[in-house]
């Protein structure tokens, strides 16, 4: 269906104890959209992504996400919501004592996969999707940072998510590798997966333009290409 909304956030406020992070924000997202969530350190990007991933309970407002209403989410429903999403972190978060195949099969087994051949096949598919071959038996430390981030993206793709959340996924990578990772996200998005990529790096906006949600002063707002240009020239 065209213009199908996968996320509708209304009157959402997020706080940590008495510290308010964002107030009364509204935004929505359609199927297969690519959205940058841009904002300085501390502006609330991670808190918003954690709320979407149901890691932080939604205290104020409503978020309809992939068929669930987060303000009414039952704890038992959380794994089912998460199965429709993938998440990628700045620091990869691979299990350092297991090889790549074991890192990925761990997630599949935890989400109900039990057929060894199907598990092997799926792992090969997602690794190929992120451009990695013959890495199954390697340990995370035997891979470069960029390769480790590709593995973590492969892990996020295992259950064919509708929405991928990426929190500063290029923060630990040098610029050339960071560009390759953004290009990979764009390819994944072109395959139909919606993506929210949080970053404080404005340079991607110029090279890879897309919709921008700007996070500043407790607000999260859609901004136009012109506003993006103006913000990028601000000191
Ligand atoms: N668990 C927590 N307890 C208390 N305050 C928190 C917690 N997590 C974040 N904060 C505060 O909330 C505000 C928003 O933080 P958040 O991590 O969401 O911002 P961010 O835009 O993702 O920043 P960064 O780019 O540094 O990750 C900050 O002032 C931070 O100190």
Low-confidence stretches: none
Main pleated sheet: 6 strands, mixed
| H/E topology pattern | EEEHEEHEHHHEHEHEEH
- Helix fraction, binned, reads 25-40%
Query: Domains counted in the coordinates: how many?
Result: 1
Q: Which percent band covers the strand fraction?
A: 25-35%
The CATH architecture term is 3-Layer(aba) Sandwich
User: How many DSSP E strands?
Assistant: 10
The span between the termini is 42 Å
Shape estimate: globular
Overall structural class, as computed from helix and strand content, comes to alpha/beta
And the CATH topology?
Rossmann fold
CATH class: Alpha Beta
Q: What's the pLDDT, averaged over the residues? A: 95
CATH homologous superfamily grouping: P-loop containing nucleotide triphosphate hydrolases
Number of helices: 8
The side-by-side strand order for the widest beta sheet comes to 6-7-8-3-9-10
Quaternary assembly: single chain
Backbone CA Rg: 18 Å
How does this model look, in words?
This protein has one domain (31-56, 73-233): Rossmann fold, CATH 3.40.50.300. It has eight helices and ten strands. The chain has a six-stranded mixed sheet, sandwiched between helices. Strands 2-1-4-5 form a four-stranded antiparallel sheet, with helices on one face. The protein has 235 residues and is an alpha/beta fold. Helices cover 35% and strands 27% of the residues. The mean pLDDT is 95. Helix 4 packs across helix 5. Bound molecules: adenosine-5'-triphosphate. Adenosine-5'-triphosphate (ATP) binds at residues 16, 19, 21, 39, 41-47, 168, 200.
């Amino acid at each position: 269906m065209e213009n199908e909304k996968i996320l509708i956030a209304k009157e959402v406020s997020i706080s940590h104890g008495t510290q308010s992070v964002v107030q009364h924000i509204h935004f929505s997202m359609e199927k297969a959209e690519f959205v940058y969530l841009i904002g300085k350190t501390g502006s609330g990007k991670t808190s918003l992504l954690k709320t979407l991933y149901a890691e932080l309970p939604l205290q104020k407002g409503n978020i309809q996400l992939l068929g669930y209403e987060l303000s009414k989410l039952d704890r038992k429903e959380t794994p089912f919501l998460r199965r429709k999403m993938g998440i990628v972190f700045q620091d990869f978060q691979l299990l350092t004592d297991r090889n790549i195949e074991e890192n990925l099969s761990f997630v599949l087994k935890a989400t109900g996969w039990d057929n060894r051949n199907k598990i092997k096949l799926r792992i090969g598919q997602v690794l190929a999707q992120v451009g990695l071959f013959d890495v199954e038996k390697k340990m995370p430390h035997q891979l470069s940072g960029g390769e480790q981030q590709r593995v973590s993206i492969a892990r996020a793709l295992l259950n064919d998510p509708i929405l991928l959340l990426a929190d500063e996924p290029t923060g630990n990578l040098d610029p050339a590798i960071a560009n390759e990772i953004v290009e990979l996200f764009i390819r994944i998005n072109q395959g139909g997966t919606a993506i929210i990529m949080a970053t404080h790096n404005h340079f991607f906006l110029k090279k890879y333009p897309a919709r921008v949600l700007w996070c500043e002063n407790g607000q999260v707002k859609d901004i136009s290409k012109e506003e993006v240009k103006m913000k990028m020239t601000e000191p």
